[in-house]
# Entry
Amino acid sequence: MFQDLDATLRTILADAAAPADLRNAEVSFETPDKDFKPAQATMNLFLYEVQENRSLRDNAPVMDRVGDHYVSRLPPLRMDCTYLVTTWSPRAGGLKAEEEHRLLGLALLWLSRFPVIQDGFLQGSLKNPPQAYSPPTMVAQTKEGHSMGEFWSALGVAPRPALSLTVTISMQPFDQADQYPVVEAIQVETASLINPTLAGRVLDETLAPVPGAKVTVVETGQGATAGPEGGFAFAGLDFGKYTLRVQVLNQPDAQTSVNYEANSQIHNVILPGH
# Structure
């Protein structure tokens, strides 16, 4: 994935609208140490730090509609990828510094045009599957506590003008995905605290109503016939646990236990499939 981010940045720098000097410069992602001596004007983007952006962390699952169902996935990681951007010239003396400074200034202005990297620039695994969020960028914003002097000392070269470029990409380490059907209808069922009623609907395995089903409260012997929408109701029962027996013509009887309370009056009965 990081190599695809490299390719994405290379595509941005080679864009036809970019300054000509940037397009003509070589782009390198090598470590700019004492052995790095390019033979032509070069822009070096050295990926030196990768860390999770915890301020963008989101624990809520990501829901996407696919056809007639929804797919739920764990949220991706948001990773800050920070590059050190330097420019290199094969010239000598003042001409060398002039070319390097000009390229660095052009890079700063051009990269600042991309607060978010558009999909058309994304390459490889950053493009397919698509990023959950368009990658934002930060240009020339050094984090507190970072000492560039120590950085250059570790590379064994003299300090040189540089700027930072941070791109935040999404990474999905989880393969788990759950599927849920699309909600086709909402049935609102009401209950009363003043006149409580044990009520519900008889539904088949597809959640279609079963009108004409006979519903019996086993403990009291009370019976009711399900209406056109499969509805039934029993008034005058004390709160407690009951067994509902459902009888449908040419089907075996079905039974279910319910806990009838003031805050639990609606109990639908879903019949098993044939």
Observations:
- Residues 93-111 form the longest helix (19 residues).
